User: Fold these one by one.
Assistant:
Number 1:
Amino acid sequence: MNMQVEWWSNIALATLMILAGNVILHKSALFGNVFKIIGYIYILLFTKGVDVFSNTLIAASSITGVSLTFYTYAYSKSKYSSISLPPLIDLFLISMILVFRSGTLIEFITFWLLTELIAFFLIAYDYMVSEDVNSMRASVKYLVFSMIPTDLALFIILALAGFEDAFTKHILDLSINISNPLVLVVIILGFFAKAAVIPLHFWLPDAHSVAPSPASVLLSGLMVKMGIYALYLLSSQIVDVVVSFTMMTFLGGLTAVYGAAQASLQRDLKRLLAYSTTSETGILSLIAGLYVLSRDESFITAIILYSLAHAVYKSFMFMDSGYIEVTIHTRNINELGFVSKLSPMQTTSTLMSIISYLGMPPSIGFLAKLYVFTTISKHLGDSVVYFMALLVLVLKVVVSVLYNAIYLKAHLGKQLSTKMFTGCSRRDEVALKTSCFTSSLYSYVIIIYALSVLQGRIIVQPGLVELLYATIAILLLVSLTLYPLIYIVLKRGTNGGVLT
Amino acid sequence: MNALPASILMNYLFAAVALSILGLTKHRKVLDIIALSASVTGLMLSLILMRYITSNGSITYTFGGFKPPLGVVYYADFVSGVFSLISSFALLISTMCAFATMSFATRKYLYILAYLLLTGVHGFIFSGDVFHLYVSVELIAISAYAITALYSNRSGNIRAALLYGIAGTSITSFLFLAVIILYGSYGTVNMADIALKSIFNEEYVPYSGYVFGDVSTASIVALALITWVFLFKSGIMPNHFWLPNVYRVTPIAGLILFTSSADLIGIYGVLRLYHVVFGDRCIISSFRTTMMSLLTAMSMISTFFSSLLVAKQVRIRNIVAYSTIAQLSIALSGVVAGVPEAVSGAILHVVANALGDALVLCGFTLHAWSSNKHMRKLGMVSISIGFVNLFGLLPIVPGFWSKALMSLGFLKVGNLLGVIVILLSTGLCAIGYFRYLTRIAIRELAKSTPPRDYSEKMLSIPIVILITVTIGFSLSIILNPYLLPIVINNTLDSTRSDRFIYNLLGIKPGE
Amino acid sequence: MDVMVFAFTAIAISFAINIAIAAYGIFTDKSLLKKLISLIIFSDTLAAFAVLIGFRLPSVLSDYPSPPILTNIPESVDYLEEISAKAVDPVPQAFIITAIVINFAVFSFLLGLLLLNYKYFGSVNVSVIEEEAGDEVY
């Protein structure tokens, strides 16, 4: 009881600080934003989730919050010339953090539904501001195909758990018996709708591309993880292994390939990123399915690391697309290609992030990919399924190189004619740029946190740790020779050279 | 304490008579004071009744001391207590709303009609007698037509009232037919007596004797007819045609009454009819089961289509009209699901719907008519809470708990489709609600000129009361996890046929 | 006796026909006035049907049922039993008088509305009114 009070006071204090920051924002931008950053750091330091996964998600949320603070302010000011967006974004993020740390089922459901509702208004934000019909259409699509199936799943779970257990029992101690396979299918489909896994994936590209960029950051970087988190919680209940494993693995694998393929066909920055998100959640769902099959805790660690890496990477990428949108007023890759000339710093940050995504050391992406591959390889002998999963993963990595290269074209393309900055003051542009750079740095900074997580998780398997550290050391050496090469490429790009 | 149900009714009836006599004189203030105080008294009495019922069980009141089935009898249990409470509360809100928004010349008629309506509703809720039921329905109906036609200088009102009136009167005639068919075969109009004889048709009851002829055919015809009447009264598709017309023109104060009393009687009637009068042991139980599955299918279809229509609407009255149809259809499917969880969920759902509609309508009036910035903001808050409540996916509003309870009930009987339909309808309705909300959030409503007697301060009082009650209600559910089991148990007691028969007739069936 | 049964059957059938005609009028006729008239026919038929429910066929005691009126006052138990065996059932008649009073109120109200309606739209025809009113909303 005492702990709970302490926790509530912590989160209440942080929320108060963030909201106060939003009020101060009207008087002084600097103080307001600093106040908000302090609030998020407070959350990062003092808020504990129910287990490692939720801790990680809270950490990812709060650092996203820190990097978004100045960004949202500058974005909202230069795109909508008002500052009504930051409070909404903060509310969204806080309610998401509350979902990740919920102790009881009822808390979980309450904040989950609140988050969804705020997300609806964020997606419809352009409609509210400028009556953009597309955004209303996207938000309605989101409402019908993502919100409602998920709520259905939550309601069924609430009904199966019973009201008294939902109020009193800890969320990890619940034991819900989902014996009816039909009910199980409906529940899993509901969480798939949130994580945008086939067959309920089609709302995501629209919703994530019409939302304001800070909202896309949260939607794509963190909100889809809510679906994965729920699948993880579900997998610890009494479920039919065959049904849940089949659905998660096969549909997840399908989504991974389909999303990656679609992403490489897109020419709109945000749609490309949105499709890549569906592909990533497909991978996560696939790993969750493998966990249900094998009950090997390493898969959970893999999910945790992969989610963290993806959250940080996707946050940066959407921030970058927002930067391009605000400064150059287009998101079409064919019209872009000169960002490196306008802002070399932005291109550097993008390259840093993409390096992390492609899994090069010493980034978090490297660690995540490595861990996923080694864990699956460990089980290769058990069943052909693991081999198939590995194949899907490799295929996805190959295609992801392709679409990341396409994305990079926006920065280092053939386009020679340069448009000038319009509609964005120099100060705001600097704020946007710096926030982006900070965000891309996180891909490297957070590795410390990830290693500590790893240390805690795999203490039982000393052999693997040694293997891991050895691999890290080798790849570090490799990367030391790789980075000068990248630097040269960058240099050529800024000098008017061509990168294809 | 036994006379409590009758005293609530008498309170309203005397208020109506007193108001109509005083309306001839020129005492404006006296009229308003009487109207307000009578509604407060009614609410107090309803609260006392509810408190008495939850602690001491049901109340049976015999008029003139005649034992049933000889005399008319009033019966109040948990379910009727809830319906009495919500309609009395709505009357209070409606009276305040009328006081704030309508000119004196109009509102003095509204007061009289509202009290007559409430008299009818309470007669309906407490009645233990089928013929009394018919009389109450007629009283409700004629007051509802008159409230619809209150602005007699507007052609739309007259047209809606006329269509409503002709359709309604022809349907209630069928209720009369059903009553005389029941009397002809059972020899009684007392519900408990009918319930007893529909289980044991050899039973002899003093004063009403044995049944006459073939009871089962007569019961089937009567059941089907009465069910149809109730579906019409609650506007379940395809009997909904009158509802949007009426909702488009009725004054706001009247509309609040409709959504929380006059339109609920269909749901309440189906609950009584299918759980108490023709319980699961009656001789036509196979027909009853067929009817119940038919009603489930019908209510689901109705829910789906009306939600689709909600998604298309852009005007607030249309949204409220179709959303009322959708919510009442959901409640109907809960009532006929046959488990106490679903039934109590349905009851909670009509309560939540009444609160939500009242919030939306009052807030809309305040928002559209006020010139004060804070008042407009309060109106906006009220509309938002109302819509979130109707949407009902946040535990801080009662709408969530009703839907959760009904989902629990549906899963218990293995009706997964029911849960899916509820959530689907929620999503479709949400499109309409939130589109409206986003529109008025940014582009403010064109301010219309209020009537001369409009007082925004007066209107803000019912809104504050409504917000407090809505949030307080759900907070009490969240803070006290044992409240819902109490509700479920009490509902279970109210839907038990043998208990009803014993309380009214003093006969234990099967002995 | 046979005549009685025949008459009874004939009356019952005529009620059914009456109800059918009235329902047809209510649901299909375009004129609101005619709808209202059909409605009145319908409710009166139902009232007559209620009388029929309370009717008593001839029995051993008497050829014709007697009215449920007590004439010997103070009454004795024997007399009451005799009356209750011979007389028609008075309860349906009580129903009817209530229903008639209610219907009187409702119909006069509806007629008033109809008059107002005629004043506004210049017609009692449903389709004309619908056309006139158009898509009028609040």
Number 2:
Amino acid sequence: MQIRVYKSDNSGVRLKDLLSEMFSDLKQSRDLAWRLTVRDFKGQYRQSLLGAFWAFITPLMSALVWIFLNASGAVKISDSGIPYPAYVLTGTLLWSILSESVMIPLKQTMGSKGIIGKINFPKEALLLSGLYKIGGNSLIKLCLMFAVIIIFGITPDFRIIFIPLVILGLIFFGFCAGLILTPLGMLYNDVGRLIPMGMQFLMYLSPVVYSASKNQGFLAKIVEWNPTSCLIVTAREYMTGLESSYNLYFTVLMIFTFIFLVFAWVFYRFSIPIIVERNG
Amino acid sequence: MNKEVLIKVEGVSKKYCKDLKKSLQYGLYDLFKPVFFGSKKKGLRNHEFWAVKEVSFELKRGECLGLIGHNGAGKSTLLKMLNGLIKPDEGSIEMRGRVGALIELGAGFNPILTGRENIYNNGAILGLSKKEIDNKIDKIIEFSEIGDFIDSPVQNYSSGMKVRLGFAVASQMEPDILIIDEVLAVGDVGFKIKCLNRISELLDRCAVIFVSHSMTQVAKVCTHGMLLDHGKTKYESEQVQNVITEYFKLFQNSESSTQGTGQASFSNLIVENYSEKTDNRFVFQQSNDVKLNFELTISSEIKKFYVGLSFLDIEQKLVAVANNVQDGIVLINDKEKHHISISVPNLFSSLSYSVTLGVFEVKDYNDPVSLGKLLLRKSDFISFINQGVKLPSYTPIQLSANWEFK
């Protein structure tokens, strides 16, 4: 028989027990996570005419704006080795995967605020369901990117088989960042407003719509060392057969991402009762 | 197997903050403090109060604890802790077995989706696996009595239908511990009966914590009672009836209101036969009749009149009336002041009652009696509690019958 003990402090809990509890909760939440995902997708598409189109309409539009700006000569963008429309389309689509990943943990948790305060279920289901949703949307976007590559006659090399892994890494990076901010965002809704703004700003600090300039100015350095640059550039390079420039950085970044992900997860679990307490 | 302790609560306390801004600040502090400075501070901070203070109890399988108390007494906070939604600030809670909570019916419903789809959504959140739901779906649909509507979107359901569906799913849980909070307040009578029946089925198998403001339901269902007042256990007993009586004593008399044309007024109310008086509430022994004396002044244009007493229970339900017409008395307004003395046989049980005085003009005393305008209605004319009941029960009236055994 399952025994649960609720006490004020957790000082006695060992890390090993905590981790095994977390993973068992994660395992238990798969059914529910899948159910929630199906529910939300169905709910979303049943009352919509354009359906899955909405998954990529925003990045597509912003890409079109930049393609237009470039074509009209309003902005001059240095050559990147692939046709500009392909460059900007892959950029905005990859960026939309990243920014969606950053926002999803808070969005999922906020969306279930009412239930969290009333029913005890493994909260991992919310996170997992968020990942499923991102996965579904990313698959659509990935197909679109492949279409772009084919249309512009770009020939990728063998590294294209690693692209799902790279994109998974990008998703986890964004998810981890979002997850760390979620408890704070559940207390103060400023966070939920700041994240999209910050992501917009970060987009221009990463080579999404224009390629990194070769000069050595301060700003260029930031763009170069910005972790989101590493993610976008690596994914794009793997997809289009451009030479990899961030291999080591990317590996280190992934290691840190997974370490932080576990921390963020522990913090999230710990924060839920406090959030329920403050939000009713 | 039948008598194991499933719930063990020891000295549990929880503080809450009245001020939202401060509350969020404390939340922030609680979030980051363990990361940087170790455990949380004990004691109250500014603007905080104890929502639950040092509550302890044990509950075995087959027992049902009725948690009662006024709004804000800490019942829901305690339930949230038992359900593991929030952590106690002091003390510890041990829950053995699968916990089912009938708190929010229909959680996880998406209004766009059909009832059938939402059974799966709701069930998944309540911890039922897909297979379990597959096996039970026909039972659920049948229980909900929703019929053909099961395949239309839940947004087209009436609120009653949603609740039915929610309860139908929730009632399929097979918990060891069941937590019920006010869910029976909604739905029509037929549905309520169905719910109560299902709950009584579960009673023997589970340890149940039952929160309701309906004392009739509490008295019917519970084996134990606990009265919470400002977060503290004020009274606890296996005699649920006594706990309910204590609960009623907590209430101040409601503001008494006066209605009517103003053509009648009363004075010099004297209550007799009571044994004590606390806060305007008389305590009667069941062996003594309830006796009221008062004076009534009615303006001269009224020729004939009616006097009646209505007895209301604590839930403001009318349980009994006494009036002069029923007792074959004709009242003529031939004096300036009428001295009225009414003695009512004490058939009341051990609950709390309030009496409303009604005075009407009578147009015609011949059969059928026809009443005219309302001259005076005084609510909470008196209120009283009955004691000395040999066998307390949750019915408002206890009849005295003639028995013959051969």
